[in-house]
Amino acid sequence: MQSLSATPPRRDPAPSRAAYRMQRLWLTPLFRTLMRVGLPAFGIVFLIGIYLASDARRAELAGGFESMIDAFQQRPEFMVSLLSVEGASPGLSDSIREAMALKLPLSSFDIDLGAARQRIETLDAVAKADLRVRSGGVLEVKVTERVPVIVWRSAAGLALLDHDGRRVSMIQTRQDRADLPLVAGDGADLAAAEALELLAAAKPILPRLRGLVRMGERRWDLVLDRGQRILLPTEAPVKALERAIALDQAQKLLDRDVLSIDLRIQDRPVLRLAPFALGELRRSRGIDTSESDL
Amino acid sequence: MTDLYQSQRAMRNMRQAAMQRGVIAILDVGSSKIACLILRFDGPERLREQDGVGSMAGQSSFRVIGAATTRSRGVRFGEISVMNETERAIRTAVQAAQKMANVRVDHVIACFSGAEPRSYGLAGEWELQDSVVTEQDVARVLAACDVPDIGPGREVLHAQPVNFALDHRTGLGDPRGQIGNRLACDMHLLSVEADVIQNLLYCIKRCDLELAGIASSAYVSGVSSLVEDEQELGAACIDMGGGSTGISVFIKKHMIYADAVRMGGDHVTSDISKGLQVPLAVAERIKTKHGGVHATGMDDRDMIEIGADSGDWEKDRRTVSRTELIGIMRPRVEEILEEARARLDAAGFEHLPSQQIVLTGGASQIPGLDGLAARILGQRVRLGRPLRVQGLPQAVTGPAFASAVGLCLFAAHPQDEWWDFDIPAERYPARSLKRALKWFKDNW
User: Which one of A37, A115, A228, B147 has the largest count of C-beta atoms within 10 Å of its C-beta?
Assistant: First the structure.
């Protein structure tokens, strides 16, 4: 019989009960997954949580990160130190620089090109602006200026309009841009394109033309010298004007004592004679109008 | 019935659960080694309805994924003599096998060789009520078998119906649905010492394993080392283990007799140890390296260094001729075989149509054993090796692992036992809910 109280042999090949159970537990798939994936994941999250628990460390971390980003962005490779404006007149160039309001030198990461472009394009005289940061730290602004083609007289004053009717600038007197035709009336800027067509069609009577008046934001009147007016319809005004010019060329209509030619109704142009001419006409026809209102 | 009857039923359910889970361990608790194999049931037949034996004798359904062997401790004559030593040895084997398989096993099927198995032949008869054999009739005829007095402190390990007879027709494999008047049945019952089983159950439970089946190692080594026609025509398997020698007789693919001789290879070793005055470990080495049972003239000149480290030159340089070694081994081997012969004679083995004898087990590897066995057991003796199963490592394909491999086959295709059949309705207690349910189930 073996000794019951004897210590077990020093090197027993058999696993202890604990080791045996441990191995069996380790071979359990759920436990294995938990240990190999769950525990490290939990540990990492736990440590990060502990680290981020204090406000100071969180702020320090964020500050460190931001300063790192700043240091990178402030590198000389990314600095913009020059602003070049191309395609703008000197006065416009100054106002563009003013509108962009950039305190150079500045990192190219800090320049919002889209916003700068929008700021430039709010200027009346700028039709289109292209911005890009060129190598060498140059911010290049390519500007397309608006070309004034019409002078618009409105309650606010005299404005120069481009062919789309967009305001280019204000002028003090008509004499500043005597070379451009004049339009007037509310809503004239919205129909600037039509006005330009009418002006082109009115070339034969151009020396006599004073300007165009927008009537009721709807139709045009041509104002000539001697107070003559050509009232154009809402629809197809160019055609009506051409017709009036044809009448003038055939019968010297405008040279006569006529106050206005009303072309608003296409089928029935109406002439309005000056009072003297009207009296003479009636007299020649033997109509006495001394008693009537006419 | 008894506790074991209930626990055998529970083990069957456990085995089904293990098959569903797909992994089951095989544990052969022998006197010289403890082997653990881990099987994975994932073959094409895993979920198929069990309809006869499948392809490859049912082996395609499983694969051995882990195997480990350790020297047995605390087991003598195939019975556990030191519980905690055996428990440690089982733990060693199971842990190594789990490590190899890289999977955890919870269910184990075990076999052991000792515990004085005794065979009984039982017969029962039953008059059929409506001339067609139903499952209930099979259950009733099994219940009608008169149980012999197996003695106090003994339990039924196997109880297998081996033959059904309907009127004058005998040898029916499956009588269900056949028409006749009188159903008779022969049953083979194997009883063992209850204490031995209790010890084994306790050891396995201490290892956090659930027992899903238990078998006699004589039976399972017969299953693995007898080929099909031998099992059909009648053969005996002699499993020469370390501490005991199991004998099982098969006919018509059923075991009809099992017994064990409480002698084995360890006794040969101890004879050598005593005869040559050497430690047991040295005796074991000499036996396996130089052992034999037939001396020839050359063996006189074959001197074996015995060696020792006593410090005495004369003692340390001893040599012995192989003839002397054979002279020590042969009487003991003869004794074992003669004892086996006596058991077979007592069982009436000579009346079987075929009297093939297959020697297997670790001790059957002695050179020249087949010649010696032929003199004692008769001319029809062969050395058997276990069937090859899928995934079995080369190291465990030897005859020493016949019972482990047989247990694999047993796990895949267990023989129908008494407790696998329905309990006849009359045996349920009156007014039992189960009985009412049963009545409903049978009548609708």
Answer: A228
DSSP secondary structure string, B253-275? TEEEEEEEES--HHHHHHHHHHH
Domains of chain A: 76-145 (3.10.20.310), 150-285 (3.40.50.11690)
A64-116 pLDDT, tens digit each: 999 999 898 888 888 888 888 888 788 888 888 888 777 778 888 888 888 88
Mean pLDDT of B194-206: 88
How many beta-carbon pairs below 8 A join chains A and B? 30
B residues 104-133 closer than 8 Å to A (CB): 104
Residues on chain B touching A14 (C-beta within 8 angstroms): 88-89, 91-92
Query: And the tokens for B420?
Result: 């696998």
CA B162 – CA B258 distance, rounded (Å): 14
What's the CATH fold of domain B120-193? Dna Ligase; domain 1 (3.30.1490)
Pick the range with the lowest mean pLDDT from A139-153, B3-17, B132-146, B273-287.
B3-17
Closest by CA to A248, choosing from A194, A205, A195, A189, is A205
Q: How far apart are CA B265 and CA B253, in angstroms?
A: 29
Which position has the higher pLDDT, B191 or B132? B191
| Range in A42-51, A217-226, B27-36, B167-176 the model is least confident about | B167-176
Residue B386 near residue B401 (C-beta atoms within 8 A)? yes
User: Helix H segments across B150-216?
Assistant: 194-206
In what order do the strands lie in the sheet containing A270-273? A167-171, A157-161, A150-154, A182-184, A209-215, A219-224, A229-231, A258-262, A270-273
- SS3 category, B72: coil
The pTM of this model reads: 0.65
Q: Which of A7-11, B93-97, B397-401 has the lowest mean pLDDT?
A: A7-11
Which CATH number does the domain B265-332 belong to among 3.40.640.10, 3.30.420.40, 3.40.50.1820, 3.40.50.1100?
3.30.420.40
| % residues pLDDT > 90 (chain A) | 10
Q: What is the ipTM for the molecules in this complex?
A: 0.73
Distances in whole angstroms, Cα of residue B395 to Cα of each of B68, B69, B265, B439: 10, 10, 20, 54
Structure tokens, B136: 């209930």
Is A290 or B290 the better-scoring residue by pLDDT?
Answer: B290
Chain A CA closest to residue B208: A21
Which residue ranges make up each domain of chain B? 120-193, 265-332
In the beta sheet, which residues pair with residue A167?
Answer: A161
Does residue B205 belong to the interface with chain A, where contact is any CB pair within 8 Å? no
pLDDT at residue number B334: 93
Cβ of A23 and B207 within 8 Å?
Answer: no
**B117: which DSSP letter?**
-
Dihedral of CA atoms B125, B128, B132, B133 in degrees, nearest 10, equals -30
Contacts of A20 in chain B (CB under 8 A): 91, 94-95, 207-208
